[in-house]
Amino acid sequence: MINNKIVTSNKKLNKDFFISFIKKNDFDMLMSLFSRMLMKNEWKDYSFQAKNNEIIFCFYKNSHENPLYKITYSKRSKKYKEWKIFYKNKKVRTSIYLIQIIQWLEGQHLRVIK
Predict the structure, then answer these.
(1) Which residues, 6+ apart, have CB-to-CB distance to 36 below 8 Å?
(2) Residue 53's closest CA among 87, 25, 16, 92?
């Protein structure tokens, strides 16, 4: 962790150096979401990885299946960033704010108790 940011780095064979990052509070929001879904018994496992210009968070119903949801953070420049959510590899929402993605996702899992 550097200056309150999660940092990952990938070195390619041509010695290009790439750094992608998200803010720590964004990471905390994602882990909080995972905790709530874990307590509801909706999700069982998660993973994350860095690829080129994005970080991918995957959430699984069972640890040996394909991800149920993927949330990606793409940062193309200092001014352009984007959060996307995929459900079973189909893009369902895009926003520049993570909170909007999380609110939509939690709305999908709210249940009315009678």
Answers:
(1) 106
(2) 16
pTM for the full predicted model: 0.74
Per-residue pLDDT at 5: 58
The domain tally of the chain equals 1
Q: Which of 61, 5, 1, 7 is nearest to 34 (CA)?
A: 61
Q: Does 32 map to a domain?
A: yes
The reply to whether 96 falls in a domain is yes
Residue 73 forms part of a structural domain: yes
In sequence order, what DSSP letters do the residues of 29-75 get, joined into one string?
HHHHHHHHHHHTTS--EEEEEEETTEEEEEEESSTTS--SEEEEEEE
Whole-number percent of the chain with pLDDT over 90: 37
